[in-house]
Amino acid sequence: MSKLRVAALQMRSGTSIERNVVMFEKMVREAAAKGAQYLQSPEMTGALVRDRDALRALITSADNDLLVRKASELADELGVHVHIGSTAIARDDGKVANRAFLFAPDGSLITTYDKVHMFDVDLDNGESWRESATYEPGRETVVADLGAVRLGLSVCYDLRFPQLFRAQALAGAQVLTLPAAFTRQTGEAHWHALLRARAIENGAFVIAAAQGGKHEDERETFGHSMVVDPWGSIVAEADHDEPAVVVADIDVAASAAARAKVPNLANARPFEVRTVAASGAAGRRAS
Asked: Is 272 a catalytic residue?
């Protein structure tokens, strides 16, 4: 079936994994009660902790993670797809992954995705972020089938790298997912524009569950979780940064229709970049 009711869970995760899991469960149950068959939480659902040492003290392996276990149980109990947008997970090699988990309606794990692009930036409001100091970046993009719906996985800063989403679209993804914890400054400037652009240029739905508001670790995130259709229209949005459950009905047949109208995926051609240096004469001043 090409139709699917989806939900984006807008959270305000704090420093306690236990409290965050309680909120996560409440929102999952609310979304399922509204008929959602696919539910997505934001980046760092498990905990938002700026201090690296404090974060490392909290995290564990996927097998022992409270949020991962709860997501699997809820998927099985409610008969829905549950997508943990991401959470910090201890890897077997001693490093840390910013990892997404996607569970089937029977509670089984369909796939995971480790965030590829690290948010290493210095913003002009004084904020500085070095994700690469904590997390080991992923090495592959992931596309998963949910029946007739093919889903591409990404996390937050990946949004600024259109080649990742183009690869997913070329692999058949009609739905692109973008769980995030966008800062308020970057969210106000770029969140809507980038989400709509990824939808338009790939002829795909975009589902983006976001963190929102002032968090316990003092960071501020933008919120505005939303669902965008393949023509770039926002079909559902939490127009604020408060916790919320955003529900929308999508039909992936709209993706095929958009790609038929504007067949840019099929029309793409290989090309090379040629750099031309200005001649010396061009820079001379006339006498």
From this structure: no
User: Which class would CATH give 3-283?
Assistant: alpha beta
Could you say which of 3, 34, 43, 216 is catalytic?
A: 43
Supply 35's token pair: 């008929």
Nearest Cα residue to 154 out of 213, 201, 193, 195: 195
C-alpha span between 140 and 164 (Å, rounded)? 9
pLDDT at 89 over 70: yes
Predicted confidence at residue 49, as pLDDT, reads 87
156 flagged as catalytic: yes
Query: Contact, 2 vs 148, CB < 8 A?
Result: yes
Q: Domain extents for the chain?
A: 3-283
Rounded to 5 degrees, what are φ and ψ at 94? Answer: 90, -5
Helix axes 192-202, 162-170, angle to 10 degrees: 30
Angle between helical axes of 17-33 and 66-78 (0-180°, round to 10)? 20
Residue 167 pLDDT > 60: yes
Out of 34, 77, 115, 127, pick the active-site residue: 115
The per-residue pLDDT for range 13-71, each reduced to its tens digit, is 999 999 999 999 999 999 999 999 999 999 999 999 878 788 888 899 999 999 999 99
Question: For residue 56, what are the contacts with CB-CB under 8 A and spacing of at least 6?
Answer: 96, 134
